[in-house]
Design a protein that fits this description.
Elements lengths: L3 H7 L5 H7 L7 E3 L5 E3 L2 H5 L7 E7 L9 H14 L4 E5 L4 H5 L7 E2 L2 E4 L1 H5 L5 H22 L5 E6 L3 E3 L9 E3 L10 E3 L1 E3 L4 H8 L3 H10 L1 E5 L4 E3 L6 H8 L6 E5 L4 E4 L14 H10 L2 E5 L4 H16 L5 E6 L1 H7 L12 H19 L5 E6 L6 H14 L2 E5 L1 H4 L5 H12 L15 H12 L4 E4 L1 H12 L7 E4 L19 E10 L4 E6 L18 E2 L5 E2 L3
Parallel strand pairs: 3-16, 3-17, 4-15, 4-16, 8-11, 17-18, 18-19, 20-22, 21-23
Antiparallel strand pairs: 1-2, 2-14, 5-6, 6-14, 7-12, 9-10, 12-13, 14-15, 22-23, 24-25
């Protein structure tokens, strides 16, 4: 097969106005960015407020391995297949971060003949949303440091500033920095650091805001640090929310594009799944539910991360409920979870698949706790054998989950027709009564331990002294009833990337707690996870080039 970038470059795209018209959007509800991209005006929600919502389908996966699962590819293929079974669907996925794009993971617009296009635009600067997030974040950082320099009220303690700068790039050298060096005019010298923009609180706020008023209210609630009296100091007290909202006014509007088969796709916001809440925006979902029968929405990484946060954070913030959940897996990845090295994955090994099923079983069992019907989608690779697939299908029958094999990477929507039929049947038969796994009003430790024990199967939870101190501060200052956003490795259900399969009984270490009051959650940082990733030894950027005629190569 041709490379993804070549398939995308050779695709025939319809004018985005035609895609919008097919959804019932009016010309005055569209702001075009060239012929194939557009912003959707939030006014469409007011016009369609009395229209019944469609069904919400969440796409998640097993724990990722180097063998690949193809969650976004399956999401896109499923969306394309809906049209082939007579259903009107919309895909909702996140905007890719430049960090993974130029790092090790590559782009995030699908693959093969199941891509969202224009692929290169989406994976690069797109409509500028992530740059707006970065600018708003760093404006607030500048205002905080200006406050320290100018000595304005309220007085933030220089050693209790918790607002960090951000950049949408993997750059480990920026994890810990010192600002204000030089002469007194350069400001107050203090330690600082950078978070990647996709994991910033501003990105989470953009993804969870319901409208401009809610956006401004959330921005105002951001806690930038604590005063000398121990009380929290907010962005609202610095009068920062208005200027920040101005920078985010266009970014708040979801982006409309299309797939290779012209299925509408709303691509908006980009919070990471391992260190943020990991799904596209509430506004994108709400618009999708008003203009389509089914919204196919992807959550970042596996069900222990993206799906758990979708139910416990996204659904609780939006009031939306899931009607069906798709779990993407591959026989190759299950063999890796069963102990097979990557270089031996081409060999048939049903026994290894059977051992690796433990990982799929753990995620299916967890999803059952949220009370949603489950469809297991096997993203089939050419070397997968019937014996290997039979092992997976047999497990699904025993577990009460629907099963479908998808070949949409090679065949587009046609390769996901069986999956689409089973997803439609599951969603149509569901009452949409998904539930969170914990009560947000529980004490902080009880919520963390509910996730650690019920989802990860930890035997105990250990809190570092810094986490204990922050926990006491959060509960004393009235933030104890916020939900929990776990920041941990995506490579294991546990905190330890070396523990593949379905580990249990381990001690789960909480290194620190971070308050995201504007987003409306507390981030619990576990293990060695970093909020600013680094580049690999050979970054993807080293393989990329652009010709004199503008043709881009080496992009994936």
């Amino acid at each position: 097969m041709k490379e993804d970038v070549v398939i995308a470059q050779e695709a025939h795209l319809r004018p985005i106005t035609e895609i919008a018209e097919a959804l019932g959007l009016r010309p005055d509800e569209l702001e075009t960015y060239g012929p194939h991209k557009a912003k959707i005006s939030l006014s469409v929600l007011e016009r369609l407020k009395d229209r019944p919502d469609g069904k919400l389908v969440l796409v998640t996966a097993i724990t990722p391995t180097p063998a690949g699962e193809g969650k976004t590819t399956t999401t896109v293929g499923l969306g394309q297949a809906l049209a082939k079974v007579g259903a009107k669907g919309v895909i909702c996925i996140r905007e890719p971060s430049l960090g993974p794009t130029f790092g090790i993971k590559g782009g995030a617009a699908g693959g093969g003949f199941s891509q969202v296009v224009p692929m290169i635009d989406i994976n690069l600067h797109f409509t500028g949303d992530i740059h707006a997030v970065t600018a708003a974040n760093n404006l607030l950082a500048a205002l905080v440091d200006n406050h320290l320099h100018q000595g304005n009220e309220p007085r933030i303690h220089p050693k209790r500033v918790n607002w960090r700068r951000c950049l949408d790039m993997n750059d480990r050298a920026l994890r810990e920095v010192v600002v204000g060096l030089g002469n007194p005019a350069s400001g107050v010298t203090r330690p600082d650091g950078f978070t990647i923009s996709a994991a910033s609180e501003i990105m989470a706020i953009l993804a969870l805001a319901r409208d401009m008023g809610d956006l401004k209210a959330r921005l105002a609630r951001i806690v930038v640090g604590f005063g000398e009296d121990g009380k929290p100091v907010t962005a609202g007290q610095l009068k920062a929310q208005g200027a920040m909202a101005i920078l985010l006014k266009d970014a708040l509007k979801p982006n409309l594009v299309q797939t290779l088969e012209h299925t509408p796709a709303i691509v908006h916001a980009g919070p990471f799944g391992n260190i943020a809440h990991g799904t596209s925006s509430v506004l994108a979902t709400r618009i999708g539910l008003k203009v389509a029968d089914y919204v196919i929405q992807e959550a970042g990484f596996a069900a222990d991360l993206g799906a758990e946060k979708f139910f416990d954070i996204f659904c609780e913030a939006s009031g939306l409920r899931v009607h069906a959940c798709v779990v993407v897996a591959t026989a190759r990845a299950l063999k890796m979870h069963g102990g097979v090295a990557k270089e031996h994955l081409e060999h048939e090994d049903p026994q290894a698949v059977r051992r690796g099923i433990a990982n799929l079983e753990r995620h299916v069992d967890n999803l059952k706790k949220f009370r949603v019907p489950i469809v297991v989608a096997i993203n089939r690779f050419p070397n997968d054998t019937r014996k290997e697939l039979d092992v997976i299908e047999r497990y699904c029958r025993e577990a009460g989950a629907a099963f479908a094999v998808a070949t949409n990477f090679e065949r587009g929507g046609e390769g996901a027709v069986d999956l689409a039929k089973k997803v439609v049947a599951a969603a149509d038969g569901s009452a949409g009564d998904s539930r969170p796994i914990y009560d947000r009003h529980w004490p902080i430790k009880r919520k963390i331990e509910a996730i650690a024990r019920e989802v990860y199967r930890a035997g105990s939870v250990n809190y570092a002294p810094e986490a204990e101190e922050m926990l006491r501060t959060l509960e004393a200052t009235g933030y104890g009833d916020l939900p929990i956003c776990m920041a941990k490795t995506q490579s294991s259900i546990s905190h330890d990337p070396s523990l593949i399969g379905a580990p249990e009984g381990f001690e789960f270490p909480v290194r620190e707690l971070r308050l995201s009051a504007g987003a409306g959650f507390i981030v619990a940082v576990a293990g060695n996870i970093m909020l600013m990733p680094g580049l690999p030894k050979v970054p993807a950027a080293a393989r990329m080039d652009i010709a004199d005629d503008g043709t881009i190569s080496g992009f994936r």
